[in-house]
Amino acid sequence: MAKYVGAIDQGTTSTRFMLFDHSGSVVTSHQLEHEQIFPKAGWVEHDAEEIIRRTQQVIDGAMKKAGARATDLSAVGITNQRETTVVWDKNTGKPYYNAIVWQDTRTGDIVNRLSQNGGADRFRDKTGLPLSTYFSGTKLVWLLENVNGLREAAERGDALFGTIDTWLIWNLTGGVGDGIHVTDVTNASRTLLMDLKTLNWDNEILAELDIPRQMLPEIRASSVRNPYGTIKAGGIADGAVLTSILGDQQAAVFGQTCYSPGEAKNTYGTGNFMLLNTGTEIVQSRHGLLTTLGYKISDEPAVYALEGAIAVTGSLVQWLRDNLNIINTAPDVENLARTVKDNGGIYFVPAFSGLFAPYWRNDARGVIVGMTRYVNKAHLARAALEATAYQTREVADAMYKDSGVEVKALKVDGGMVYNELLMQFQADILGVPVVRPVVSETTALGAAYAAGLATGFWSNTEELRNNWQVSNRWNPDMDENTREELYRNWKRAVERTFNWVE
């Protein structure tokens, strides 16, 4: 009898495989990083073949640690960095180009060109998204226009497009000759190519972007009783069925058990992503948020969400470590920031690749304001942490304006939620409690939950709710005047980032 559900968590900087038991507890995991490639300013790439190698390695690594066999797995789910784009040759399995990462801004000219006819929101009613460098569709346009021979291969039917989930499944289910070419509604909703109502690729948008439809994968539900396919990649998990796909932020919604309209979570990773469940209603944002798919379970109606996407949060700490060398490891940032009582009057707006929600300004670039001779590296560390909390407050404010739902408490997950200083400041600047669950890596947990629901390992979402437990809670401890003064100065700092790129 199956004892576990597995989850492949393919992120921006690393890949891991985790095993969960029936209580939703982590049995074991194995994680490996992959290379970040920066060919030019604003360009961010991954080696897609390295990612599939890492995926196979972490699956085998975790299975060996647990002494598990494929027959011990009820199912395997996938969660992934969402908008990162891969195009490969179905006959050789080789990518035509490196994967273009969601953070990449090279498509600015394409976005501007498309915006000339109808503005940045020309596709928003159908897709819930503004035109932006963020989404997969514009990255695919760039590849078709810049990679020699790719358009001809696409029109012949030889070139396949996918986000990372699609690339993984195609390889894990046999690759050349056998690979299953599918995605789910959550990842498809981040391409700029899917109609939110029909849950299918939109022919008019494909025509506008000149994208051959035969490149695109089949869109399926996020959790499927009829598996996407069976793993046959030459590893320990061969024979296990793949029954869930969720983009990483939607997986966190599922792992945080935000199954009712009005429930919200915030993930603190490379970037920050707050999602609010809006139920089966498509709520079009008027305040800089994205309308997206939350999840779709088998034949049940799709569940939608409002999302506030912030490009740079955890990666700002990496920047302090790797570019400025003022800390040795990411956790060191908290100890350094605690050596000062406040930010010394500085604000750090990390618009390294423009600003995402709620501004959507491709012309913005990062600034540090308020500098004096008094400021030292500890103030910089503290301002970097505070930037994450301020950006989250901006998204929470926009969600309230769009939905009328006031966040009473914020469920949080991701690597940065172990930073006690940040979590307390987050509660202070929001003015509401911040709550961390026992299992804080909820992207993998959400993929596992969705996979296990499909096979009956868990019977329903109520059983999953009962697994959710609080690890820590931070209550606000800042007076209203101080909170609003700090936030007002943050907004002034944000304005300094605008119009830098002409």
List keywords for this structure.
single chain; 502 residues; alpha+beta; 16 helices; 22% strand
Q: Your description of this structure?
A:
The chain is α+β, with helices and mostly antiparallel strands and 502 residues long. The chain is 33% helix and 22% strand. The chain is built from 16 helices and 23 strands. The chain has helices spanning 48-66, 108-115, 124-127, 136-146, 150-156, 164-172, 185-188, 203-209, 248-255, 314-322, 332-337, 377-403, 420-430, 442-455, 461-467, 480-495, and strands at 4-10, 14-20, 26-33, 45-46, 73-80, 85-89, 99-100, 159-163, 182-184, 194-195, 200-201, 218-220, 229-230, 241-247, 264-268, 272-279, 290-295, 303-310, 347-349, 367-369, 410-413, 434-437, 470-474. The strands form seven sheets. The chain has a seven-stranded mixed β-sheet. A six-stranded mixed β-sheet has the order 3-2-1-5-14-13, with helices on both faces. A two-stranded antiparallel ribbon has the order 4-7. β17 and β18 (303-310) form a beta hairpin. α1 (48-66) crosses α6 and α12 packs across α13. The model has no long low-confidence stretch (mean pLDDT 94).
Could you say which structural class the secondary elements and strand pairing correspond to? Answer: alpha+beta
What average pLDDT do the residues reach? Answer: 94
The count of strands amounts to 23
β-strand percent reads 15-25%
Weakly predicted, low-confidence segments: none
Kindly report the spatial arrangement of strands forming the biggest sheet: 17-18-16-15-21-22-23
Tell me which oligomeric state these chains represent.
Answer: single chain
Radius of gyration: 22 Å
Which descriptor suits the 3D outline? globular
- Binned, the helix content reads 25-40%
Q: Report the total helices.
A: 16
